[in-house]
Write a structure and sequence with these properties.
Layout lengths: L1 E5 L2 E6 L1 H10 L1 E7 L4 E9 L6 E5 L2 E7 H6 L7 E7 L5 E8 L23
Parallel strand pairs: 2-8, 4-6
Antiparallel strand pairs: 1-2, 3-4, 5-6, 7-8
Length: 122
């Protein structure tokens, strides 16, 4: 699971296995150790929501995905889903969940579990 945060936006990208896990068991979690503490982030399939939602409690980001989307996502070609969540003081939190594609350029990370990049062929 890759997490990108910038200002009031959170984007998560998932490998094939992670998309399958979310659709199958309904959640995935990950963490980053900092020595002085652990930063945690997770995805949970949830009933009764119409779009992505998120919470931040006890140093952990949780993004909630409509269960109907999560269950069928592994089997379709939909790249992802997004939602703008209004904030109490005004403004909004932008949420984006996507399948992770293989990079076109050479990178050192293992991309064997990523989706084929549709831009790889001209």
């Amino acid at each position: 699971m890759k997490l990108r945060i910038r200002n009031n936006s959170v984007r998560i990208r998932l490998s094939r296995t992670e998309v399958d896990t979310l659709g199958g068991i309904g959640h995935i979690e990950d963490a980053t150790e900092f020595g002085t503490g652990t930063f945690r982030y997770s995805l949970w399939a949830k009933e009764g929501i119409g779009g992505l939602q998120a919470s931040f409690e006890d140093g952990k980001i949780t993004m909630f995905v409509p269960i109907e989307f999560a269950k069928v996502w592994p089997e379709n070609t939909v790249v992802g889903t997004a939602n703008e969540v209004p904030l109490p003081g005004g403004g909004s939190l932008s949420l984006l969940l996507e399948k992770d594609f293989k990079c076109i350029d050479n990178v050192s990370e293992d991309q064997s579990d990523n989706y084929e990049n549709p831009n790889a062929v001209c």
